[in-house]
From TrEMBL:
Domain Secretion system C-terminal sorting: 166-233
Residues spanning the signal sequence: 1-24
One Pfam family cited in the UniProt record for this chain: Por_Secre_tail
Species lineage: Bacteria, Pseudomonadati, Bacteroidota, Flavobacteriia, Flavobacteriales
The entry's keywords: Signal
InterPro entries attached to this UniProt entry: DUF306_Meta_HslJ (IPR005184), HslJ-like_sf (IPR038670), Secre_tail (IPR026444)
Domain DUF306 per the UniProt entry, residue ranges: 48-129
Name recorded for this polypeptide: Putative secreted protein (Por secretion system target)
Domain of life according to the entry: Bacteria
Length: 235
């Protein structure tokens, strides 16, 4: 067997492994997950949405290409996973967050707990359970360190901003924000270091981002009762 044939066979088997790895994932894993509860080893439950009832709901979105993004209380994050089909685990291989300073100690503590769990560079075991009302996702990265999510919003106030459509992404000039009503929104764009680079109160349909340099940004959109943060790529 010559070297060219060997190389082709290696590429072929690597391709088969990649396809097997992707197909082995449960498609229910993809989508937006709303944080319900955090547990931390001997401390047990350290954050529970139903106890805290915040105006915001931390979120994690897992995409089919295994990139992920989300936000906590005042900062957004993004990265990508690798998937182990044999162990049914996700491992974060990249994690980038904005660095805005939250308003309260409760928000700061939540983000420390939540982001440490999401970013932990170790295997996160996956457990998915469904009932008639929602699907629940548990990600456990160490024994007792568990983040529990649901695929439905836990807050009525979240519905307005969850219906927003933000496009195009990547964006070069105008970023359009479609919303279900004429409510005034506070829009702030942050760079990956948490610096505010653009801010406006708007009931308009678009935000001009043409002056920004290319790169990753986080757009924070706030209404009277809720906040949404999403990763934006400036092309």
């Amino acid at each position: 067997m010559n070297s060219k044939t060997t190389k082709r066979l290696l590429i072929f088997f690597c391709f088969l492994f990649f396809i097997k790895n992707i197909n082995a994932q449960d498609s229910n894993l993809y989508g937006t997950w709303y944080l319900h509860q955090l547990e931390a080893d001997l401390d047990g439950v350290v954050w529970d949405y139903e106890d805290v009832q915040p105006d915001y709901i931390p979120q994690l979105t897992i995409n089919s290409d295994l990139t992920f993004e989300g936000f906590g209380a005042c900062n957004g994050f993004n990265g990508y996973y690798t998937y182990d089909a044999e162990q049914n685990t996700l491992t974060p291989n990249s994690f980038v967050q904005s660095l805005a300073v939250c308003d309260t100690s409760g928000e700061i503590n939540l983000e420390n707990l939540f982001f440490n769990q999401v970013a932990a560079n170790t295997s996160h075991s996956i457990t998915l359970n469904s009932n008639a009302d929602f699907t629940q996702l548990r990600l456990e990265n160490f024994p007792g360190y568990i983040a529990t999510y649901r695929n439905v919003s836990l807050s009525n106030s979240d519905q307005i901003l969850s219906e927003l459509k933000i496009y195009p992404n990547p964006v070069s000039d105008n970023l359009f924000i479609s919303k279900p009503n004429s409510e005034v929104l506070d829009v702030v764009l942050y760079d990956i270091y948490g610096n505010s680079v653009l801010q406006q109160k708007t009931i308009e349909e678009s935000v001009d981002v043409s002056i920004l340099t290319e790169g990753i940004y986080f757009i924070k959109i706030s209404s009277a009762n809720d906040t949404r943060i999403q990763k934006i790529i400036k092309a």
